[in-house]
Amino acid sequence: MSEQSPSAAHDFIGKEYAAGFVTDIEQETIPPGLDEAVIKEISERKNEPEWLLDWRLQAYRRWLEMPEPTWAKVDYEPIDYQAISYFAAPTGDKPKSLDEVDPELLRTYEKLGIPLHEQEMLAGVERDPDTPRVAVDAIFDSVSLTTTFKKELQEHGVIYCSFGEAVENHPELVQQYLGTVVPPSDNFYAALNSAVFSDGSFVYIPKGVRCPMELLSYFRINAQNTGQFERTLIIADEGSYASYLEGCTAPMRDENQLHAAVVELVALEDASIKYSTVQNWYPGDEEGNGGIYNFVTKRGVCRGARSHISWTQVETGSAITWKYPSVILRGDNSVGEFYSVAITNNHQQADTGSKMTHIGRNTSSTIISKGISAGSSSNAYRGRVRMNPGAKQARNFTQCDSLLIGGKCAAHTFPTIESQRSDAIVEHEATTSKVSEDQLFLCRQRGIDAEKAVAMIVNGFCKEVLRELPMEFAVEASKLLEVSLEGAVG
Amino acid sequence: MKLLELRGLVASVDEKQILNGIDLTVNAGEVHAIMGPNGSGKSTLSNVLAGRDGYTVTEGDIELMGTPVNGMSVEERALTGLFLGFQHPIEIPGVTNMEFLKVAIDSHRISIGEEEMNTRDFMVQVRDISKRLELSTEFLKRFVNVGFSGGEKKRNEILQLMLLRPRLAFLDETDSGLDVDALQVVAKGINEFRSGDNGVVLVTHYQRLLNYIDVDFVHIMVNGTIVKSGDAQLAHEVEAQGYAGLGKA
Ligand SMILES: Nc1ncnc2c1ncn2[C@@H]1O[C@H](COP(=O)(O)OP(=O)(O)O)[C@@H](O)[C@H]1O
Ligand SMILES: [Mg+2]
Q1: Model confidence over A171-217: pLDDT tens digits?
Q2: CA-based angle A364:A367:A370, to the nearest 5?
């Protein structure tokens, strides 16, 4: 990430947001606007089967009737959905191997520290036989460029590929599970995504297989005036395990860009999925111009008994974040977890949290949310824990901590508990604290400068969540926290 | 070598004048005690020296290690060798004592162009100091000052002092709230720290700390000014007569 950006100007402002450069490459885009013809064109370009086009069109028709949600604690000018382009891809056929990928694109990933060659490691990670290897699916605007380690994964029966390839090669799996966790009618953005989704990742782990490496999908928005609508589907069959990581960045642009993704996780009996996100979309500048609108629906279903789904997220970027990774605990004794750090600075707004829906017996869930607000930002936790009538002896523990830096920011918490069981155990703890002048004075008096001191305090505050991340991601996340807070103290 | 020189120091907090003209010189190798009733301005003096926001020098000069402090930030003053022992050490939840000490020592080393301290050397040194202060290794893993007893908080200040080895230690009521055993441990730490190269200013209410630490000078502060200076004998007089008579002297 320390590589020079192409222009001196970018180099200068890029200090705060290292991933803010633009890749200069020929693109094919569908002109801005959305109607059934556009959806047909997307589907056609992707050579999709009839059933999928129908599915998209139905979602589109539903979307037309749905109102945009207004309940979140975020504030923005109405989005003109006709001004957005719904498809952008580098010109030419999909490359068959890395040799065919445009060198300009390869340089992009090099700069971002994302290894597209199998012998490389994630940037900043030391080559160590104990460090698990990472397979990468690189998604650039609307298409997947390449997926590494495919062969080796195949030997274990693991399918890790772009969503488009899954539709082509494993249509029965896609058709069986697509939309079963997040139906197109779920909400406004999920419906929009279902209509226009471009690419994303697909994972299937067969029965009894422990996926031998971490799976990383790296999303990059590059094109101007373009939305990114990726779709991810992960299925962990009985007794299997997968650890999936997700990273994302975008160039610095003056206008806002929409990112509306849908992620569906399915864990069958005794299966376990660990899903980690480090979200670093461009947050906009100090005055609040530009940045990504991150309106995302993420949900997992613990279908089988003793299944386990764990979401860990570190949200540092985006102008607006609207995101509630959730778990439906259907299987008896299943476990759902949500660990979150959401940091907002300058004029960023975040409304994020989780929903845990307990259906099976003896199900348990944990929510640990750490919100950090600095500058003039606003940070809200929104959570819902529901114990259905059949959820005998269900348990939830929620801890929701807010940390304020400076006097102009705000933190809010909106927890909801709906329990239809008298034997349910629901615990909720919440704290709000401030990085105080006294704490900073103590640190500075010991020779530690204010920014370093804030970074140290914030890292301490988030420790419980950061330690849930795979090691190489945790290092990256700590660094990002520090960068995000630059200028947060006078 | 002059470590600290105050000449006619007048200072205010939030527009309110608290220090009303203080003269004081601390040379290397000296230990001074400043005694005075509550509210006389002792803690204010420590904050003014450290350059804390909201504390303004309106008249007079402060020199640290022979250099005027004008325009120096809190961290710059710390890195030139000023150390404050806090009267009320503040808690930092989530940050372990160990991490805090490491970042602090590394900040000092980086400021003089040295490398960060090797983790093993650091551990050896911190464990050794902790042992001398009768603090367990477990103590190092706890969050800075969180849930510490009064005695632990003060011993933790001395631990930082002994690790960072400043030129001038200004210790604000390090003896308050300690039982006799803890007082002895703290005094032992200060005695181990003091040398011909550094200086110590002990701010205290009571003469009892001076039973364990030999001081070269005692100053009595009342109403934001030093009303009387002398040797260790002066502390005994204060103990016997109180501050009342001295204020008018
Ligand atoms: N932030 C402040 N604003 C106004 N007055 C203050 C402030 N801090 C201290 N003071 C006043 O300054 C005086 C000296 O206080 P302090 O320096 O704490 O005395 P000491 O440490 O000798 O007990 C007291 O009258 C106190 O009320
Ligand atoms: Mg005091």
Answers
A1: 999 999 999 999 999 999 999 999 999 888 999 999 999 998 888 88
A2: 165
User: What's the CATH number of domain B2-247, 2.40.50.140, 3.40.50.2300, 3.40.50.10260, 3.40.50.300?
Assistant: 3.40.50.300
A452 CA to chain B: closest CA distance, Å?
Answer: 9
Handedness of CA A166, A171, A177, A182 (dihedral sign): positive
| Ligand 1 neighbourhood includes B14 CB (under 6 angstroms) | yes
d(CA A44, CA A64): 22
Residues of A in CB contact (< 8 Å) with B are 433, 436-439, 441-450, 452, 456-457, 459-463
Q: Where are the alpha helices (DSSP H) in A270-348?
A: none
Domain ranges of chain A: 8-323
> How many angstroms separate the CA atoms of B207 and B218, rounded?
10
Model confidence at A288, pLDDT cuts 50, 70, 90, reads: confident
B73 CB neighbours in chain A (<8 A) are 444
Say whether pLDDT at A5 is over 50.
Answer: no
pLDDT exceeds cutoff 60 at B247: no
Strands (E), A75-200: 88-90, 134-140, 143-147, 159-162
Could you tell which of B35, B44, B176 is best to mutate to test the pocket of ligand 1, judged by most ligand atoms within 8 Å of the CB? B44
Q: What pLDDT sits at residue A116?
A: 73
In A, which residues are within 8 Å of B104 by CB distance? Answer: 443, 446-448
Q: Chain A: residue nearest B89 by CA? A: A442
Structural contact between residues B155 and B189, judged by C-beta atoms closer than 8 angstroms: yes
How is chain B split into domains, by residue range? Answer: 2-247
For A46, the 3-state DSSP assignment is coil
